[in-house]
Amino acid sequence: MASLKTALYVGACMTAWMITTAKMDIIPKAENVHWQSVDFKTILIWTATPSDYTYTVLYSEDGGNWDTNPDCIQISDSECDMTNSLKPFDRTYTADIQTEPAGINYDSDHDEFPHTYSPPFNPYRQSEISAVNFTVESVEETAVSINIIDPLTSIHEHTKQLSIRDILKKDLKYKIMYYKSGSTGKRDVTSNSSTAKISNLDAGQSYCFMVAAFIPSRAKAHKQGEWSSQICTPGHKSPLGELSLGALVGGIFILIVVLIIIVTVAVLCCKCCRQKKTIQQSSHSTVV
């Protein structure tokens, strides 16, 4: 009899386990979880099979306690804006995406539903930096001034919208690449501030410039931001400087031909005048 009860108990446990496992297999679990962050606006993104289940996102700072993102509780979307939750910026965060039935009672055990953990993410060291805007101003014949506009973030503090320099401070530098128009040789310099003077340029030549944010304290994959569009200075070449070698040689040849024609015509005119004068003198002598 005892053996029968034991067998029934084991059978009941196995049946319950199988039902729970089957149920867990049906519940959609967040997959392909990754972070997307540009200029410190950070979105947690995942994929899941369409269903009536919702998702709640929790996050942990440096392996500490879990907090719930108030904007991502029982959401049906497959993304969550984590921008305002990831502060301080220079910390490593992990997110936990919980799958839940719609209208779940928060007194119930959440561990019975699937959890998916994100890769660790540090916004200060991993957020990508977008292309910057800048201007180029001539200050001397052989020098220009580069003025860079620090990109704004979507983060506000005390009604002020922060720029990437407000966050990165002295870690933010700019890489400036430039080359002479029509040349393949490129040079680059690094500026510690948002302004830079580029000297030793060839006077009157056109130069093209591109700028990118540069954070040398980061790992190689996240050191440099996106390159900007290029801006080229107009240059001030002389008309002769704009001519090709062939055109210049052709022009010189034509000029020489014209000079020869002028000289030849002048010589012929002189000869004619002399001959006429000689004839006149001969006629006058004959009359006398």
UniProtKB/TrEMBL annotation:
<keyword id="KW-0449">Lipoprotein</keyword>
<keyword id="KW-0472">Membrane</keyword>
<keyword id="KW-0094">Blood coagulation</keyword>
<comment type="function">
    <text>Initiates blood coagulation by forming a complex with circulating factor VII or VIIa. The [TF:VIIa] complex activates factors IX or X by specific limited proteolysis. TF plays a role in normal hemostasis by initiating the cell-surface assembly and propagation of the coagulation protease cascade.</text>
</comment>
<dbReference type="Pfam" id="PF09294">
    <property type="entry name" value="Interfer-bind"/>
</dbReference>
<keyword id="KW-0812">Transmembrane</keyword>
<comment type="subunit">
    <text>Interacts with HSPE; the interaction, inhibited by heparin, promotes the generation of activated factor X and activates coagulation in the presence of activated factor VII.</text>
</comment>
<keyword id="KW-0356">Hemostasis</keyword>
<dbReference type="InterPro" id="IPR015373">
    <property type="entry name" value="Interferon/interleukin_rcp_dom"/>
</dbReference>
<keyword id="KW-0564">Palmitate</keyword>
<keyword id="KW-0325">Glycoprotein</keyword>
<dbReference type="InterPro" id="IPR001187">
    <property type="entry name" value="Tissue_factor"/>
</dbReference>
<keyword id="KW-0732">Signal</keyword>
<feature type="domain" description="Interferon/interleukin receptor">
    <location>
        <begin position="134"/>
        <end position="233"/>
    </location>
</feature>
<dbReference type="GO" id="GO:0007596">
    <property type="term" value="P:blood coagulation"/>
</dbReference>
<dbReference type="Pfam" id="PF01108">
    <property type="entry name" value="Tissue_fac"/>
</dbReference>
<dbReference type="GO" id="GO:0005886">
    <property type="term" value="C:plasma membrane"/>
</dbReference>
<feature type="domain" description="Fibronectin type-III">
    <location>
        <begin position="14"/>
        <end position="103"/>
    </location>
</feature>
<feature type="transmembrane region" description="Helical">
    <location>
        <begin position="245"/>
        <end position="270"/>
    </location>
</feature>
<dbReference type="InterPro" id="IPR013783">
    <property type="entry name" value="Ig-like_fold"/>
</dbReference>
<dbReference type="GO" id="GO:0004896">
    <property type="term" value="F:cytokine receptor activity"/>
</dbReference>
<keyword id="KW-1133">Transmembrane helix</keyword>
<protein>
    <recommendedName>
        <fullName>Tissue factor</fullName>
    </recommendedName>
</protein>
<comment type="similarity">
    <text>Belongs to the tissue factor family.</text>
</comment>
<dbReference type="InterPro" id="IPR050650">
    <property type="entry name" value="Type-II_Cytokine-TF_Rcpt"/>
</dbReference>
<keyword id="KW-1015">Disulfide bond</keyword>
<dbReference type="InterPro" id="IPR003961">
    <property type="entry name" value="FN3_dom"/>
</dbReference>
<dbReference type="InterPro" id="IPR036116">
    <property type="entry name" value="FN3_sf"/>
</dbReference>
